[in-house]
Design brief:
Oligomer: single chain
Radius of gyration: 16 Å
Shape: globular
Mean pLDDT: 85
Structural class: mainly alpha
Order of helices and strands: HHHHHHH
Helix content: over 70%
Largest sheet: none
Number of domains: 1
Strand content: under 5%
């Protein structure tokens, strides 16, 4: 995550404008590897995986932050759809906490998506760098 922060800070225009890239075998292959590693990471740790997904969309496919954030929702949905049943079956879900948290997360997601669309790429980029930096410090400590 520190490397991701550094790359974004060193390249102030990264993720602000869409870069047209042809989708060939190599980017698809890299995205499959990134997806598998991110899924594995998410299955173990959970938090922070979206950082890798968003950064992959920006770096591999030339998306803007807004496009990458929007595109990352589908892999996140699949990650959760695959991992949640495993945790439910094994009895690790605390329903008294999970249900209110899920409902409030849904509301926060709605308002966050509206704000992201209104404010655009520069706003998302600034939040992304801050989030990645904080997560990197958390994992280091």
């Amino acid at each position: 995550m520190i490397i991701i922060s550094a790359i974004i800070l060193i390249n102030p225009k990264i993720g602000l404008q869409e870069k047209e890239r042809k989708i060939t075998f190599l980017p698809i292959f890299i995205s499959i590897i990134l997806g598998a590693l991110t899924g594995f990471y998410t299955g173990i740790f959970g938090g922070g995986a979206n950082v890798f997904i968003i950064f992959g969309f920006i770096l591999i496919f030339g998306h803007t932050f807004l496009q990458a954030t929007a595109s990352s929702k589908l892999p996140n949905l699949l990650i959760n759809a695959i991992s949640v049943p495993m945790f439910i079956v094994k009895g690790f879900v605390n329903w008294e906490i999970a249900i209110p948290l899920t409902l409030s997360t849904a509301a926060g997601s709605y308002f966050g998506a509206r704000l992201a669309v209104e404010k655009g790429n520069k706003f998302i980029r600034a939040l992304f760098v801050g989030l990645v930096f904080i997560l990197a410090l958390k994992y280091l400590i």
